[in-house]
From TrEMBL:
<keyword id="KW-0547">Nucleotide-binding</keyword>
<comment type="similarity">
    <text>Belongs to the GHMP kinase family. Homoserine kinase subfamily.</text>
</comment>
<dbReference type="InterPro" id="IPR013750">
    <property type="entry name" value="GHMP_kinase_C_dom"/>
</dbReference>
<keyword id="KW-0808">Transferase</keyword>
<comment type="function">
    <text>Catalyzes the ATP-dependent phosphorylation of L-homoserine to L-homoserine phosphate.</text>
</comment>
<dbReference type="InterPro" id="IPR036554">
    <property type="entry name" value="GHMP_kinase_C_sf"/>
</dbReference>
<feature type="binding site">
    <location>
        <begin position="95"/>
        <end position="105"/>
    </location>
    <ligand>
        <name>ATP</name>
    </ligand>
</feature>
<keyword id="KW-0067">ATP-binding</keyword>
<dbReference type="GO" id="GO:0004413">
    <property type="term" value="F:homoserine kinase activity"/>
</dbReference>
<dbReference type="InterPro" id="IPR000870">
    <property type="entry name" value="Homoserine_kinase"/>
</dbReference>
<dbReference type="Pfam" id="PF08544">
    <property type="entry name" value="GHMP_kinases_C"/>
</dbReference>
<dbReference type="InterPro" id="IPR014721">
    <property type="entry name" value="Ribsml_uS5_D2-typ_fold_subgr"/>
</dbReference>
<dbReference type="GO" id="GO:0005524">
    <property type="term" value="F:ATP binding"/>
</dbReference>
<protein>
    <recommendedName>
        <fullName>Homoserine kinase</fullName>
        <ecNumber>2.7.1.39</ecNumber>
    </recommendedName>
</protein>
<keyword id="KW-0418">Kinase</keyword>
<dbReference type="Pfam" id="PF00288">
    <property type="entry name" value="GHMP_kinases_N"/>
</dbReference>
<dbReference type="InterPro" id="IPR006203">
    <property type="entry name" value="GHMP_knse_ATP-bd_CS"/>
</dbReference>
């Protein structure tokens, strides 16, 4: 039986950005980054109001097609809960279309906010973390960003075929604890890059030798991220997607080469254009200054513990 949320309930979801792939773990590895959008949802008697502040305020729709709103509605639907009306306020800082998982964060934030409302009504109806991974991954079809924003830390994610005809793909993830010596620096270029566009640059088939190369590096990445940061350079090598997308990401490709020449394990964050550097020492001042002089934002980030609702 569907239960109805009373008007006047409020929750805020604080949802982290994420980085996907980490070099060799294409569509598999991810990490939650301590850089947060906030979504405040209040139940009302009727109607929908949406306000967006900050990143994307002028570009995203302020109505029912807004990704956060669709995620809230999906979360309520799966929990079997109905709201007469909703007031949604999004305070965005995660840059859009830069390879920092903004669309996955929006889906996770909306679902988590819905789950917070559901929990206020009846904790027994609350969705599990596994359900949040499934539902948020369904929005984009890729669990590497979404599961990182749900679970926090680094993640290994995977998918399996639908369990019923016409059912959704099944998504799963396991969390890894990132070694405390690893520092994360994101170099964010000003230009945007659409994930859908750069996915279209990838070949349908790859040589067996390249697949084998990436299997070894992705397995090594799990070791390097959790226990052996000294292996990060080898563990972040890739042959499956970075070179193939390079012509769309010239600034990114040049900065990755520069950082790697300095012994810093740098990769494309998600589908780019952000560069993700994983280091055990501070980024050299000279490189930081040079990146900033070229117009890149340089962000020193913590690993996040995943979405929080209060
Ligand atoms: N907070 C948000 N609210 C609504 N829509 C969003 C939000 N964040 C991202 N999006 C949508 O997702 C698009 C970016 O997705 P994508 O190209 O996959 O890049 P990203 O790497 O940032 O996820 C935006 O152009 C916008 O349409
Ligand atoms: N595995 C995906 C990750 C896309 O991440 P995004 O943050 O760029 O949306 C891919 O490489 O396409």
């Amino acid at each position: 039986m569907t239960q109805t949320l009373p008007a006047g309930l409020t929750v805020t979801a604080r949802v982290p950005a994420s980085t996907a792939n980490l070099g060799p773990g294409f569509d598999t590895l991810g990490m939650a980054l301590g850089f947060y959008d906030e979504i405040t949802v209040t139940t009302t008697a009727a109607g929908l109001t949406v306000r967006v502040e900050g990143e994307g305020a002028e570009d995203v729709p302020w109505g029912p097609s807004h990704l956060v709103v669709r995620a809230i509605e999906r979360g309520l639907e799966v929990a079997g809960v109905w709201a007469g009306g909703l007031d949604v306020v999004c305070r965005n800082v995660i840059p859009h279309s830069r390879g920092l998982g903004s669309s996955a964060s929006a889906a996770v934030g909306g679902l988590a906010a819905a789950n917070g409302l559901v929990s206020l009504l009846d904790p027994a109806l609350a969705l599990t973390a596994a359900q949040l991974v499934q539902l948020s991954s369904e929005f984009e079809g890729h669990p590497d960003n979404a599961s990182a924003s749900v679970l926090g830390g680094a993640v290994v994610s995977w998918s399996e075929a639908p369990t019923v005809a016409d059912g959704p793909q099944q998504y799963f993830a396991a969390r890894l604890e990132v070694h405390p010596d690893i520092r994360i620096v994101a170099l964010v270029p000003s230009e945007h890059s659409s994930t859908a566009h750069t996915r279209g640059m990838l070949p349908e088939q790859v040589p067996h030798a390249d697949a084998a190369f990436n299997v070894s590096r992705a397995a090594l990445a799990v070791v390097a991220l959790t226990e052996r940061p000294d292996l990060l350079m080898s563990a972040t090598e890739d042959r499956l997607h970075q070179r193939q997308r390079a012509t769309a990401l010239p600034v990114t490709t040049r900065w990755i080469a520069t950082l790697r020449e300095h012994g810093i394990a740098a990769v494309v964050s998600g589908a780019g254009p952000t560069v993700l550097a994983l280091t055990t020492a501070a980024l050299p001042d000279e490189l930081r200054r040079r990146a900033e002089a070229e117009g890149l934002r340089v962000l020193d980030l913590e690993v996040s513990d995943g979405v929080q609702v209060h």
